[in-house]
Amino acid sequence: MGLVVYNTLSKTKEPFKTIEDGKVRMYVCGPTVYDYLHIGNFRGAIFFNLVRNWLEKTGNEVTYVYNYTDVDDKIIKRANAEGVDSSQISETYILAFEEDYNRLKLRPHSKNPRVTEHMDDIIKLVEGIIENDKAYVIDGEVFYSIDNFENYGKLSGKKLDELEVGQRVEVDQRKKNPMDFVLWKPAKPGEPSWDSPWGKGRPGWHIECSAMIRAILGESIDIHGGGIDLIFPHHENEIAQGEGCTGKKYCNYWMHNNFINLKDQKMSKSLGNVITARGFMDKYHPEILKFVMLSAHYRSMLNVNEEKIDQAVSGLARVYKSLREADQFISESTLEGGAPYKALKQIMDQADARIKKALNDDFNTGEMMANIYEVVRVFNAQNIAKKKKDPNARASAIAFKEWLASWAQVSALFLEDPTEFLKTLDEILIREKGIDKAEVEALITARDEARAAKDWPKSDEARDKLLAIGIEIMDSPSGTTWEVKK
Question: Is 276 a member of any domain?
């Protein structure tokens, strides 16, 4: 089965067919750079990275454009509040976003255009829309005339006569239709501006993406992505602009990721429950953020709470413990030759087929994760640590690592050093559960001394106390080690 994608435009899953054979033109709306991004903003960044990786793994050449909106009311407001130039604000938060993005070990995009780099393209596009009688100019301000675009509302399903206008802001009486939107706005004191045929000013928000898409990817693209909050009016207006200028279909497949709730509530600044991606990664780990995002289907609502984070820690620990065991065995065993165990080879082949089917069915990442767990389970069942003299055990460890690495390339998960990452998980759990490390070490010492004295009741008592506070102990010839139960 080939790739099938849910298209917001048709409200149904459709077979994916590229405009140009083997080449995908993909654009995803990036951040407006006036502050640190919250975890919801990163759902798209993490998911669409997987989309691009899967498209490439299945033989396509992908041009993936992810923009920065560096001209916006929010940027200007913050710049004025801080008494700095708006470019200083946008530059600060572009760098901050890129730091956060790189911490997630996501691949660079093909291009990260900035609005300020494409003013000429924006002006040309606005001129084309005016020439096609889809826009009009009043007092140096350019408005898009939605009455002159026949299919306005086709993406969102909204009908013009049902749209309520002026609930929160006073309607501009100069507009021909209250829903007409701004393409170019005149300059105001204290705001950045550019020369244009309509006087000095700056672009409206919606025209920016249409212009960058046209300049970099062409008049028609394969995939346009973003959060569901962008469907209307932003993406609806993009279609009106692009098709209003060229008369050609603007985008074939519209993909939208759903919202994130934090502890059963929508994240909002008014509720004071916004957590930045940076804050989350500092408190937990970038790997946990990626895991949480990819554990659910991108079109489903995702609720991030303590339970979800615990599940992520447990799931990641399961995979990384197996990777650590494979690493240790490979380094300790020198037996060459051999072949992976039949049961392991069989489950890896089956999982490959199932994951391929899942990702081809509108990127079902939850099913991908379930199949990875199944391979981990079968690998663990081989109990290779006790098979030092079996060359097939070493071959199995190598095959398992290579298999997982192939899906790591698609998901951007499981790229950490296993030993170091498991230590990090321990530190997180010690902090979250309020475990006293000194108490743990004292109990380990007491248990070691009791065992040396062959005082088994006392040894068992220390072990039971450790288990009660969530500590697992591992005895080996080199001594006793411990970690937090995950």
Answer: no
Q: Is 473 left (phi over 0), alpha (psi -120 to 50) or beta?
A: beta
417 and 439 in a single domain? The answer is no
pLDDT digits (tens, 9 = 90+) for 12-42: 999 999 999 999 999 999 999 999 999 999 9
**HSE of 319, CA atoms in CB hemisphere, 13 A:** 27
Residue with tokens 């654009």: 27
> Would you call 200 exposed, middle or buried from its count of C-beta atoms within 10 A (0-12, 13-18, 19+)?
middle
Q: Which residues are registered as beta bridge partners of 474?
A: 481
Q: Which is nearest to 256 in space by CA: 104, 2, 29? A: 29
Q: Give the residue numbers spanning the domain of 356.
A: 305-421
- In a domain? residue 360: yes
Is residue 124 in some structural domain? yes
Phi and psi, residue 21, nearest 5°: -55, 125
* Residue tagged 């089956």 (tokens): 350
Out of 223, 239, 257, pick the residue that ends a domain: 257
At 65, is the secondary structure helix, strand, or coil? strand
Residues 250 and 377 in one domain: no
- Per residue in 95-104, pLDDT (tens digit) is 999 999 999 9
Residues of the chain by 3-state class (helix, strand, coil), percent to 5: 50, 15, 35
pTM of the model: 0.95
Domains of the chain: total: 3
Give me 426's structure tokens.
């321990």
For residue 223, the 8-state DSSP code is E
Q: Which residue has the tokens 């041009």?
A: 63
- Please, is 473 exposed, middle or buried when counting C-beta atoms within 10 Å of its C-beta (0-12, 13-18, 19+)? middle
